[in-house]
Amino acid sequence: MKKLFLCIAILVYSSIAFCQIEVGKEMNALQNTICNPLNLSYRFCLDNPSRREAADPTMIMFEGEYFLFASKSGGYWHSKDLIHWDFITSTDLPFEEYAPAAVVIKDKIYFIASGNAPRKIYKTSDPQSGKWEVANATFPIGMTDPDLFLDEDGRLYFYYGCSNVKPIYGVELDPETLNPIGKPVECFNSNKATFGWERPGDYNNENANPWTEGSWMTKHNGKYYLQYATPGTQFKSYCDGVYVSDKPLGPFKPALHNPCSYKPEGFIAGAGHSSTFQDKYGNYWHISTMTISVKHMFERRLGLFPMFFDKDGELYTYTGFGDFPFIIPQKKISGPEALFPGWMLLSFHKPVQVSSEIKDHAKNLANDEEVRTYWSAKTGGKGEWINMDLQKRSMINAIQINFAENDTRLLGRSDSAYYQYLLEYSNDNITWKPLVDKRLNKTDVPHDYIQLTKPIQARYVKVTNYHVPDGTFAVSDLRIFGKGTGGLPGEVENFRVQRNQNDNREVELNWKKNPDAVGYNIRYGEAKDKLYHNYQVLDKSSVVIRSLNSNIRYCFTIDAFNEGGIHKGTKIVVAQ
Length: 576
Description:
5% helix; Jelly Rolls; eight-stranded antiparallel β-sheet; Immunoglobulin-like; six-stranded antiparallel β-sheet; 42 strands
């Protein structure tokens, strides 16, 4: 009899495992969207406090596939489609150095990381193997935040710098020996007196010197766009500026549209220290560092954003709704509108019930649209749960579960670093149906994003824990996307803009609060047809923006959005 029960148990377990694998394959095959922060196996750092980190990304395309290098990750990632990623380890590369850089030269990838001189440059023709060899054992420049750029004529350039005093430097390299040709030149330094976005602080409200770092060169239509990060990686205001030149080593002038990559608000903020690359269809992308910086200043994640050059050659990154789901296109696109599937946020401040909670990490923090706060159960045990009431039946297209590492002690990569859970839905909070079953999952997905193969109509969504890597079962936000019932919010009324006459880097915006709106997206720029900056707020009717260029005028408009969609603003207000 015992043998019979054992056989039945094995069959049931095998059946569940098989079903999960098949469902997982179907979902992976149909997925065409992603959601920031990227759902990668971010490594736990090697020192206390226990926390995850990845930052300073370099993305390149090699033989039609993508390779992603990031600081302190213990390896690098590979993808064929920018959606699904596998992780590659190697004993050959210095993964504990910050800000790795890579470039493709002919049939090889060349790699260098930050550090004192002499540095080594590595190369490989087979990055998926993890096998690298030394290409230059005595690179003579000690530096932080390197960038390698190969020009169309075969000439190779090297940019570097990470300081709150010194500038960004550039120098030409011999493409055969990989040694410098001539002396490094100063490209540019910070100018916080003119550029409000270079002032430190989450809201550009501090007066210390900014960090000028993370350079990256892109060439487009004969122009050289040298991008750099500022004012500091721990701030929501972390962004990328850009200078432009007709020559790879300058002289450089600041672009009119600056910063070129900026995401100061939303569930997770920051869009600095990035790399710019083209996909296999010719679309430009910007992969950036995003900040959490709670357990440690360097607690960071990665975000991917579409990037564009307009008809006048202005470079801009589209970060509007930059942590909502967006489509990874399978063709050349002309603007960001082609990427938005129309799925809105359904979970903000909805009623939540939980199995338990601890002090300072209450249940209301599980859907406050702030990655820096989180709900935690009292234990990490099987059966802890969170249940969200959307208050009415809604169309659900995608769900993002952002796990928080509460009371973890893990350091480095671990075989236990994965989450197992059961995701269910209901319309009466009594009868539950399985939505996603990951009770046997062994993949590390700290920001698990699930695009449903078919949308469902549901009012309640529940996540039940079966395994956490360590510590307690904790969620920084359970985010649900789709379409709610009801129409769009009305156009925003009484939109007013007042520039600070004592400091032109600042502007205050006010509007009449719309009872039908969940939030607002402010779009602005130096011209009415160049409203490339985005500043998103939730449940507010005013905001102060301190990131303007003091020497140009700005045009502003404001969109209202809710669970039904976006009502784009039509009124444009000019601030001199």
